[in-house]
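Hi support team,

I submitted a single chain yesterday and got back a structure, but I'm not sure I'm reading the token output correctly. Could someone confirm the output below corresponds to the sequence I sent? I've pasted both exactly as they appear in my results page.

Thanks,
R.
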Amino acid sequence: MISAGVLFYLLNVFVLVTGDTVHHYYWRDYHGYLPLDGISFEGVYVAQIPGHDGILAASFYPETKEAVTEVFGKKSVAKKGIKVNMRLPL
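Hi R., thanks for writing in. Yes, this is the structure output for that exact sequence:
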């Protein structure tokens, strides 16, 4: 699994690479399948999950259909409410 620190780094690189004022991505609700425009790194997708105080960045693993993140040293796993980062067609 990718740690929260690595995911945070990858998200920052993603934002820097697409650092213009037009965002070329969007968040799509996950309903059991991943379209081809999902943003992934080595088979792990960039995701968001609901947290106690808002939305959390997470790593989505399609083989287990779970999004995993770490908050204050505690692992958090979600199977519902997952949003996956997608590319907009250019």
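A quick pointer for reading it: The beta strands are 25-29, 40-41, 44-51, 54-61, 66-71, 74-78, 83-87. Let us know if anything else looks off.

Best,
Support desk
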